[in-house]
Amino acid sequence: xxxxxxxxxxxxxxxxxxxxxxxxxxxxxxxxxxxxxxxxxxxxxxxxxxxxxxxxxxxxxxxxxxxxxxxxxxxxxxxxxxxxxxxxxxxxxxxxxxxxxxxxxxxxxxxxxxxxxxxxxxxx
Length: 124
Description:
- By secondary structure, the chain is mostly helical.
- The chain has six helices and no strands.
- It has helices at 7-18, 23-30, 34-47, 67-77, 82-91, 98-108.
- It starts with 6 loop residues before the first helix and ends in a 16-residue tail after the last helix.
């Protein structure tokens, strides 16, 4: 996700529109998209503020309900490859790519990196 535009720019755009200029004209003048101007005016009407809304990612994907299972399996066995975890998840009815499992492990703070001796590091 990108960063929100500065509050000062938001105020200047709204002031320009309040002076009687159109949304598209304001977009050209400030070199922003017409959609940004439309959304900004809509935001002010709804909230009374020009502060950017918090950007959040809702949900955790289809692996989130299985996160505890993955954590427990790695605690029990210690060393499982991403492919082995994919097979175990397939047995639970979840078909995912190994990259998704890798991202889940990163979110859980677990690592599958090898140590300096070339051995697989213990999970957890």
